[in-house]
């Protein structure tokens, strides 16, 4: 009984399903519901069944998740569209290209080098000169989207263009060249240009130290001209014969070392070479003038005739110093606090005012060839000589001074500074003071006249004559002209004149003790 009932149930189910899945709609019975061949529960209004019409559907054929805006197909049964399709249009502008769809980012790549300039357009369809990110090597950075050879992936070439878009032009490919304005093939280090090839007027070296003078460059020969000719940062090297660090062409005495270049008379000749170092006119007595550079080790400077010498001990000077001796035109009569004296000879020792660390020694030497105790050419007893500095007496008379040697005819003293020094003879204080002393032409002869203001212990006068101011004088009177007393006037006529160019006269007064004083010379011109 049970088996029969089950069989009938299965048969009914089979018949029902066969009818539903056959796709054939049930006859219209006037009911409001119709059925599709899916499920007895899948029903739609009969009016929409459109058994005689067609159903349109829209799909995503390019699988870009966007539905086509154009009809993909129709079906005659409502709900018969393929899976994933829909019966309303989508917004895909090109359902055959998955790259073209709404809201797509298009990157500009005008030169088609797969590098974008970074400009973006958002739309569905592709624009000319635009591609999407996945098609690009880089979505930005192309600095010239009109040139396929210019982009971040390009190799930099030396063409004055930023080929690789790194903000630099020809980096690592140019050479620095240096201007060669004087065309000597050597360039100026501060006038540069970077170029792919050597421009005209430029060279590859920067060794020129003067680009305005073709004679000055590293290949030039150094000459002594105060210029660094060969650009080795030395001037006049190799031109220092006396090794005093002063080049020969600028050394005021290139034969003698004189670092200080002392030139006290400003005649352009260094004192150590100048025969008259303290006399610009060079009219000094060259036998009593000399110059020399003496260093910290000391040294000795002497005049050619030996009349004066300077001994500088070690340590007296700190550095090399030019010292010079120049005979000066001292008067025949000098005035000091001791009164008037006869200047035998005087010298200026330079540099004046130079102070030594320890005393130096100065020695005066006078001639007395016959050893009679009288200085040759004078009637001065050598025991009366003294040394003056700037007309101030430094020493006592030779006979009382330990530094004086009347036998050797030398007077030695020490001093810390340089000045004018004179070997002079002084007698007792004032013998005769003159109010005037003159010489003039008189009836073809020369009249010598003088007048005294005072005459202390005065024995008499002698008249002396010379053809030159500093020449050797000859006594004219045969016997002493006796003194008359204070305020007296005297005349002497020289009848032996023969020279038309004139003479020089000096007056000597002698006291009762035999001490004499010479007065300033006077001159007369012509006959």
Beta-strand percentage range: 25-35%
Unreliable parts: 1-52
**Net shape:** rod-shaped
- Judged by helices, strands and strand pairing, the structural class is mainly beta
Distance between the termini: 200 Å
What is the average per-residue confidence, as pLDDT, rounded to a whole number?
Answer: 85
Number of strands: 31
Largest sheet: 7 strands, antiparallel
In DSSP terms, counting alpha (H) and pi (I) runs of 4 or more, how many helices? 1
- Kindly provide the radius of gyration, computed on alpha-carbon positions and rounded to a whole number of angstroms: 64 Å
Binned, the helix content reads: under 10%
Structure explained in plain terms:
The structure is a single chain. With 527 residues, the chain is mainly beta. It is built from 1 helix and 31 strands. The strands form 8 sheets. Strands 11, 14, 15, 16, 18, 19 and 22 form a 7-stranded antiparallel β-sheet that branches. Strands 25, 26, 27, 29, 30 and 31 form a 6-stranded antiparallel β-sheet that branches. A hairpin with a 4-residue loop joins strand 20 and strand 21. The longest helix has 19 residues. It is rod-shaped.
SSE blueprint and pairings:
Elements: H1 2-20, E1 33-35, E2 43-45, E3 55-57, E4 73-75, E5 105-108, E6 120-122, E7 130-131, E8 175-179, E9 192-195, E10 202-203, E11 290-294, E12 299-302, E13 308-312, E14 321-328, E15 333-336, E16 339-350, E17 355-365, E18 385-389, E19 392-393, E20 404-405, E21 410-417, E22 420-425, E23 432-442, E24 445-455, E25 458-466, E26 474-475, E27 481-482, E28 489-494, E29 503-511, E30 516-518, E31 522-524
Antiparallel strand pairs: 1-2, 3-4, 5-6, 5-7, 8-9, 8-10, 11-14, 12-13, 13-17, 14-16, 15-16, 16-22, 17-21, 18-19, 18-22, 20-21, 23-24, 24-28, 25-26, 25-27, 25-29, 29-30, 29-31
């Amino acid at each position: 009984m049970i088996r029969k009932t089950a069989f009938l149930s299965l048969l009914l189910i089979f018949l029902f399903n066969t009818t539903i899945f056959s796709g054939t709609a049930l006859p219209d019975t006037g009911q409001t519901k119709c059925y599709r061949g899916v499920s007895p529960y899948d029903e739609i209004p009969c009016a929409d069944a459109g058994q005689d019409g067609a159903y349109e559907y829209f799909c995503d054929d390019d699988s870009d998740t966007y539905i086509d805006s154009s009809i993909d197909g129709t079906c005659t049964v409502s709900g018969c569209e393929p899976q994933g399709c829909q019966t309303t249009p989508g917004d895909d502008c090109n359902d055959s290209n998955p790259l073209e769809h709404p809201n797509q980012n298009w990157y500009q790549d005008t030169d088609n080098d797969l590098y974008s300039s970074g400009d973006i357009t958002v739309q569905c369809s592709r624009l000319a000169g635009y591609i999407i990110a996945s098609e690009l090597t880089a979505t930005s950075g192309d600095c010239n989207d009109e040139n396929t050879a210019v982009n971040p992936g390009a190799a930099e070439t030396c063409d004055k263009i930023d080929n690789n878009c790194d903000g630099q032009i020809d980096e690592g490919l140019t050479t620095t060249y240096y201007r060669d304005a004087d065309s000597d093939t050597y360039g100026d280090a501060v006038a540069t240009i970077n170029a792919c090839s050597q421009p005209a007027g430029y060279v590859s070296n920067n060794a020129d130290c003067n680009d305005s003078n073709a004679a000055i460059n590293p290949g030039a020969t150094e000459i002594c001209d105060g210029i660094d000719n060969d650009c080795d940062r030395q001037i006049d090297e190799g031109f220092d014969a006396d090794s005093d660090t002063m080049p020969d062409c600028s050394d005021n005495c290139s034969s003698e070392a004189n670092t200080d270049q002392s030139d006290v008379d400003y005649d352009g000749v260094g004192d150590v070479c100048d025969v008259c170092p303290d006399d610009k006119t060079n009219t000094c007595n060259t036998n009593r003038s000399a110059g020399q550079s003496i260093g910290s080790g000391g040294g000795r400077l002497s005049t050619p005739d030996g009349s004066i010498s300077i001994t500088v001990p070690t340590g007296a000077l700190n550095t090399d110093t030019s010292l010079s001796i120049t005979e000066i035109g001292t008067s025949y009569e000098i005035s000091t606090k001791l009164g008037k004296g006869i200047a035998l000879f005087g010298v200026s020792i330079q540099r004046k005012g130079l102070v030594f660390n320890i005393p130096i020694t100065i020695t005066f030497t006078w001639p007395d060839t016959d050893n009679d105790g009288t200085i040759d050419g004078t009637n001065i007893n050598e025991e009366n000589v003294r040394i003056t500095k700037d007309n101030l007496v430094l020493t006592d008379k030779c006979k009382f001074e330990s530094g004086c040697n009347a036998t050797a005819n030398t007077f030695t003293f020490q001093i810390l500074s340089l000045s004018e020094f004179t070997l002079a003879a002084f007698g007792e204080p004032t013998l005769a003071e003159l109010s005037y002393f003159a010489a003039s032409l008189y009836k073809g002869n020369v009249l010598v006249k003088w007048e005294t203001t005072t005459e202390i212990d005065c024995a008499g006068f002698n008249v002396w004559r010379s053809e030159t101011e500093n020449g050797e004088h000859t006594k004219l009177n045969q016997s002493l002209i006796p003194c008359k007393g204070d305020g007296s006037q005297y005349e002497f006529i020289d009848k032996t004149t023969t020279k038309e160019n004139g003479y020089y006269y000096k007056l000597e007064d002698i006291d009762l003790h035999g001490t004499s004083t010479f007065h300033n010379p006077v001159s007369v011109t012509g006959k």
